[in-house]
Amino acid sequence: MSASASASASLEDNCLLRWGIIATGMVASWFVTDLCLTRPDAQARHVIQAVGGSSLEKSQKFVATHITTNDAQGRHTGVKAYGSYAEVYADPDVDIVYIATPHSMHRQNCLDAIAAGKHVLCEKPFTVNAREAREVFAAAKAKGVFVMEGVWTRFFPLVRTLQRLLHEERAIGDVHRVFCDFAMPKPMAQMSLTNETRLTNRALGAGTLLDIGIYSLMWGMLALDPGVGEAARKPQVLASQSIVNGVDWATSMLLTYSTSKDGSSPAQHAILTSSSLTKTPAAFCRIEGTTGYVVIEGFAASVPTFFTVHDTTAPDAQPKKYEFERPGKGFYWEADSIAHSIAAGKTENKLMPWAETLCVMDLMDEVRRQGGAAFPQDEQ
């Protein structure tokens, strides 16, 4: 066996994850479809081992639709369909649980999976508030299992490249301001009549902030601060929300990062918004620096397609466009990174550590405190 073939075999042996999927909705279907893709540059091997839904029929339909028919390598043909989440947690062949349930269920789903000794990838927002997140992380620490919030966009090569250009190569000098919007039109008034969806039911973590505003928040933090988790700076936040029946239909946030203790340099600002009343144009984010600016474009802030760097010091300079191939949706990048973390015996991922999740949850709690969107879970 050649050295390269040996290295590849070792990679597959050490970075193999057997997944249990919790929930059978749209995001879960995107995730498993991505993990079934055949990728020549794959950095880990993933097997869909089990799916648990609210009924056996839903799980069986999910498996037949999204897994066995999309499997090019024969990895997932023995997927077990369960009619409950508990059966997935109890399955001895499941290494890690992917949680894609509504926001309000994340805390209990995580705690149940952790109690069963499973590693956890839980979709954003990690929980409804920071108190719940701290409870989950405390349980994970006591059990010694890996846990991560699934903010898939952070793992895109586009995002990693942008961070390098901004903070290491200083492609636009000192970054001083960011604008980012994530808006998707939703019939909030109609949905409020039944109050059954996660977008309008406060008990389910309703509103734009936790659903899409979290991505605007992500871009502001990534653009203004190279630090992550414990190394990140803590910004001040001013917020306003458009509240209808206790639910935010739109949210505006201003993050302020101090750049010097003596006031000799200006503070950095991030103006970040989310709304259910309109659709954000393709150019959803602009990052401004002392020597240029960056425009990020895509269908939405969660799925950037490309970005363009503009040099304002050279009027005749052509903007430089950075494009990235993204087969499928792009969930496999975070899955590969998790596989490497677990293979190395880690309980956290360096790109999305627990402290980063807590920082974001604390900021969103403060935004809601100022804006007026409260959840029943805040009172517990």
UniProtKB/TrEMBL annotation:
Instruction: Enumerate the UniProt keywords alphabetically.
Output: Oxidoreductase
Query: Which EC class, in a word?
Result: oxidoreductase
**The reaction(s) this protein catalyses:** D-xylose + NADP(+) = D-xylono-1,5-lactone + NADPH + H(+)
**Tagged with keyword Oxidoreductase:** yes
Bilayer-crossing regions: none
The source's domain of life comes to Eukaryota
Oxidoreductase keyword on record: yes
- Stretches assigned to the Gfo/Idh/MocA-like oxidoreductase N-terminal domain: 18-150
Query: Which SUPFAM superfamilies would you find in this protein's record?
Result: Glyceraldehyde-3-phosphate dehydrogenase-like, C-terminal domain, NAD(P)-binding Rossmann-fold domains
Q: What EC number(s) does this enzyme carry?
A: 1.1.1.179
Q: Name one Pfam family in it.
A: GFO_IDH_MocA
Protein family membership: Belongs to the Gfo/Idh/MocA family.
Q: What PANTHER family does UniProt report for this protein, alphabetically?
A: OXIDOREDUCTASES, TRANS-1,2-DIHYDROBENZENE-1,2-DIOL DEHYDROGENASE
UniProt-recorded name of the protein? D-xylose 1-dehydrogenase (NADP(+), D-xylono-1,5-lactone-forming)
